[in-house]
Structures are given as structure tokens and as C-alpha cells.
Design goal:
Helices cover 39% and strands 26% of the residues. It has 113 residues and is of the alpha/beta class. It has one domain: Transcription Regulator spoIIAA. The protein has a 5-stranded mixed beta sheet with strand order 1-2-4-6-7.
Length: 113
């Protein structure tokens, strides 16, 4: 399985289990975010500890999650970024748009309760 989900109160943590978040798996991730949002979940943490690379389609899926959470007065937080992924996020200047925390615990403590 490429992605798994754990529930923490009214928030979910989506765990990435792919070394590369790219066009081969980003559509599945985007669908997962949309499905949970449709089911009323708007507090989402995306944990990327295992992901060493992210391309534009991966960033697109992340931006979709950020938008749908914001549109429903929720919160989207990225965490566990590896250096190459963090660099990609910074090059795209998405670190100005996205909430980024070091780990899941920090992300959950910053969620709007």
C-alpha cells in the first residue's frame, strides 16, 4: 500500500510509504484527500518521512489537499520532509503557502481543535 491513514480525534494523518511521490502515485493520493474531505474530514496531516523525492504531480496533490482543507475551514499540515523534498517545496516557494512541521506530534499539536 502506498499510503496509510491513522485517525487522531477529528484529524487524520496520511502516511506516505513511497520513496518517490510522482505521477505514478500522486493521482491516488489526490483521490484519497478528496474522498476524506468529501466525508467531512478537513484536518489533515501528510507525513512524508519515507518519501525521498517529490515531483510536480506530487506537489499538485499536496496543493489540492491544502486548498480543500482551507476551503472547508480546516487545516492541512505537511511533516517529516526529507531534505530533497523540502528543497523542492522551497524552490516552488510553497513553504510560504503550506504549513510545515517537523513531525506528526508537532503537526497534531498545531491543529485547530
Amino acid at each position: 500500500m502506498n499510503f496509510s491513514i491513522s485517525t487522531h480525534g477529528n484529524a487524520i494523518v496520511v502516511h506516505s510509504h513511497v520513496a518517490k511521490l510522482d505521477s505514478s502515485n500522486a493521482p491516488d493520493l489526490k483521490s484519497l484527500f478528496l474522498l476524506h474531505n468529501k466525508n467531512g474530514i478537513n484536518q489533515i496531516v501528510f507525513e512524508m518521512v519515507e518519501t525521498m523525492y517529490c515531483d510536480s504531480s506530487g506537489l499538485s496533490a499536496i496543493l489540492v489537499a491544502n486548498r480543500i482543507c482551507k476551503d472547508t475551514n480546516g487545516t492541512f499540515i505537511l511533516c517529516g520532509l526529507q531534505s530533497a523534498v523540502r528543497k523542492m517545496v522551497e524552490i516552488a516557494q510553497l513553504d510560504r503557502v503550506l504549513s510545515i512541521e517537523v513531525n506528526v506530534e508537532d503537526a497534531l499539536s498545531h491543529m485547530n481543535h
